[in-house]
């Protein structure tokens, strides 16, 4: 098989390293010239995706979902009345997600390392934020509908603080959308059971509100995900059809540029059938990152790249999901494979997104 190479690598978000500085240093060292943007790795208490958001609701613990020893949802019993729900939710103080605090703190480390020459000029600081269902699944079912608008308002307040503190030319906002696909595929209910209807319409509108809330002067990407709890998807997709459909709908509903989409590729899927829906993906100027890289599988990674190349000609690579819970030996393998199967970005690759924003590029 002829080797197929792509330019550039995308880091999805979390990284299994001790500190933000470790993430920045090792990323640029192990992926030289391949990164358009770098996340802070969501280290320490943030490595388990949104579970650290439980603290946001600690003032009223009864609204949080309860789990048994097997991590299965424990039904709320007795079910609270509407009046009791409203009373509990009204007793919450103004919510603060904390995403602004950690982003601004990590950005200080980012700029320090850039001044030292560790992080190359032109590389952006990536801030990953969860879409609403990824946090609201932690809330007990009777309270989800009432908490939803409060958490959305809090998340957007903290987005504004991030945008005010970090210059737009340095910043990328990435929305992480995972629980949406469990809801749409009917997987792992009741944990991911929607509290709204019609499900698809609600999710499409909600996701568009988030993407449209990001300043048009700031890069914005969307990570579409089938989960990684216990290194397994919550549902094995038959192909990329739903991913492509959600992406196309979001493009139509978003009134600002979407800089990139990231989509997962299961390790065992190097067949054309999985990638076939990509022929319907309406990218325009949007970058595409495919999560083809899997630990210990350089040959398979190259096969997945080669198959994807038959459907879409311009894409870059990454892992399926974040690496917050990845074993250290797998992290080393992933970074080695990512470097081996990719080539460095050209100057135009590295600057293209910024140029588009600076020139006031059209919608998507």
From TrEMBL:
<feature type="region of interest" description="Disordered">
    <location>
        <begin position="344"/>
        <end position="364"/>
    </location>
</feature>
<protein>
    <submittedName>
        <fullName>Uncharacterized protein</fullName>
    </submittedName>
</protein>
<dbReference type="InterPro" id="IPR038071">
    <property type="entry name" value="UROD/MetE-like_sf"/>
</dbReference>
